[in-house]
Amino acid sequence: MNVLHRILKLAVPLNRSLVILKYKLLGPPRILNFSRGTNLEILKAFGAIVGRNVRIYSPVVLHAAPQGFSNLTIGDSCLLNGNNYLDLTAKITLEKGVSLGPGVTIMTHNRYNHNPFLEERLAHTCGKKDVLIKEWSGIKAGALITMGVTIGRNAVVAGGAVVNRDVSDNTFVAGVPAKLVKELKP
């Protein structure tokens, strides 16, 4: 192994440690825009529960997390494909094997920019609620998951779908709003 290769092997963990130290001083970053390993270490450093074999590609926007990422749980073997937006106002749980395609948005709250007219008339749509995505589900590119939704085990959400109600196990949903397209054989 040549000297340059040895130096580079030492530099990566050192760089990761410096990045984490920087954010320990400044507070958690709003955008994870680092290497896969550094993104994982930052999440863990600020309270997220992260399983083994998790792959997170940049960027990932983490909204409403000035105190940290304790509202985020990512199970083993999950994949976040980048350009994801995770609203951590309430809890987001991605169970084992969940994959999020590029551009997936998960919202855990809803407001109308403090507009009294809209918030009074649409009060039933305001608030915050947890989102749960169960084992081995796939959320395809550009899908939007709204607050309070549970995506069932082995479910597939089509690209661009807007999911505003629970999705059953072993199903494929698509559309705006998302509707059942097909039941999948377990």
Describe this structure in words.
This protein has 186 residues and is of the alpha/beta class. The chain has one domain: Hexapeptide repeat proteins (UDP N-Acetylglucosamine Acyltransferase, domain 1, 3 Solenoid). Helices cover 22% and strands 28% of the residues. It is built from 3 helices and 20 strands. The strands form 4 sheets. The protein has a 7-stranded mixed β-sheet. It has a 6-stranded mixed β-sheet with strand order 1-4-7-10-15-18, with no helix packed on it. It has a 5-stranded parallel β-sheet with strand order 2-5-8-13-16, covered by helices on one side. Helix 1 (3-26) packs parallel to helix 2. The longest helix is centred in the first third of the chain and has 24 residues, at 3-26. It is globular. It starts with a helix and ends with a strand. The mean pLDDT is 90.
Characteristic terms for this protein:
6-stranded mixed beta sheet; UDP N-Acetylglucosamine Acyltransferase, domain 1; alpha/beta
Quick rundown:
With 186 residues, the protein is of the alpha/beta class.
Spans with pLDDT under 50 lasting ≥5 residues? none
Given the structure, what is the number of helices?
Answer: 3
Distance N to C terminus: 49 Å
- Give the overall shape: globular
Mind telling me the CATH class?
Answer: Mainly Beta
User: So, the CATH homologous superfamily?
Assistant: Hexapeptide repeat proteins
Strands, total number: 20
Order of H and E elements: HEHEEEEEEEEEEHEEEEEEEEE
Q: Strand order, main sheet: write it out.
A: 3-6-9-14-17-19-20
What would you report as the Rg, rounded to the nearest angstrom?
A: 18 Å
Structural class: alpha/beta
β-strand amount: 25-35%
Mean pLDDT: 90
- Number of domains as seen in the coordinates: 1
Main beta sheet: 7 strands, mixed
> What share of the residues lie within helices?
10-25%
Instruction: Give the CATH topology.
Output: UDP N-Acetylglucosamine Acyltransferase, domain 1
